[in-house]
Amino acid sequence: xxxTWNDTRxxxxxxxxxxxxxxxxxxxxxxxGAAVRPAGHRVFQTIIRDLSSGGFTATSATxxxxxxxxxxxxxxxxxxxxxxxxxxxxxxxxxxxxLLDQVEFDRLLQQAGDAGKARGAAENPGGKPxxxxxxxxxx
Length: 139
Prior knowledge:
Layout: H1 15-20, E1 28-38, E2 44-51, E3 55-59, E4 69-73, E5 80-88, E6 91-96, H2 102-123
Antiparallel strand pairs: 1-2, 1-4, 2-3, 3-6, 4-5, 5-6
């Protein structure tokens, strides 16, 4: 599926609309356990590596083709619909079908922070976890 500026399926609030108006949101480095189900395939477990209101990067040992529709499931949230944009060497990027609102985004970051604290405590009792969630990802 290709998207053009005149495509009426994507109005204000959609990723496509925002990206056409150059409203790119900053990506934040996170570590969130989730599941992904690409259309026509079985669900697999993944780790979300960075997140913005418009999309995410996550792990995938299986090659995912660009434009594949998928559903990202994070515990405590309804599934998020997204479209795969790229896949390379075990990572893929996807654009949400609709931009995350600030409440959803903040809750996901809170979950990432809680997971990071638990992971850090297990890996380094009394120390600061490496790769603190919420740090800006490098472009």
